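Re: your question about Taste receptor type 2

S., sorry for the slow reply, the queue was backed up all week. Below is exactly what I fed in.
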Amino acid sequence: EQSNVTSFDAIAVAIITLEMFAGMWINVFLVSVLCMTWVKRKTLNSNEKILLLLGFSRFCYFCISWIYYFLSIIYPKYLYFHPIFQLVVSIQSWLHYSDLWVSASLCVFYCIKIANFRNSLFIYLKVKIDRIVPWLLLGSELSSLIISILVYNDIDKALCKNFNDTCQGCIWKSSIRREEQLFPIFFIVGFVFVSSFMAVIFSALLLLFSLWKHKRNMQTNSMKDLSMDAHIRAMKSILSFLIIYSINFIVLILMLIYAVMSPNHVKFPIYVVLYSFPGFHSLILIFSNPKLETTMLRILPCVKCKDLHEVRTVTKDGAH
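Result:
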């Protein structure tokens, strides 16, 4: 049976749908370009491997999140059939945690690859980083999968008290009380949020310190170094990511606070910001990569983007 959908719910679904489809298109572009590069070169470097997994996990996250949001607003009773609710939430959690940890791994990769420190451990990581990346990505996915399984079990236990024995078809009540059994879920989710956020902060601080130290050495020796450009490009990318990651972190905490027994008009702004993060960050990554940026500007149908691409080409040629 269809729920009583208000005009606010209809507008909310329309806005979230547009936002998610934009994010899907951005990440489909990212994955498609990297897959074509993989086919042509028969290999991918470490940075491209991280971007490929990040784009794929974000595309899947948008798909499952749109299904969850659409059903929760339009057909909430269909969502709460056992075990549909647990499966959807656990899959969404797996993809969300994968997104957070893989994006944090990208920041750590930039830090190790570009920053210059004489510490023996840091030098070892810099030499072995290309071999470490596949295992880092595998660990991120496995840990995300394990946590999503724990979330599934905790939700199943929390819903047992709300099971209506009199209803047929094993329908779970859509209203879930804020109980002590939900605390493990919040603890696990909070741990993932904090750990990934701390990894981004430390990577940004280390890279910033390396840039400051490198710049001071250049001024002392009165010489120029091409690695300064790499430092600056990486810092722009990580700092922009740090800003939107901080906003996303605050929104994630608010989501935990208002996750249970909150009306749709309260949770709607949280969902808007939450679902804009993966697409917006992927867009930043695309325009931070010269190859991806060039391909993006070529396929965009708008004339302004073509003119911008021509201006950049002329500027580069004139600089050479």
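The chain has one domain: 1-160+176-298. Confidence is low (pLDDT under 50) at residues 163-179, 303-308, 310-320.

Happy to talk it through on Thursday.
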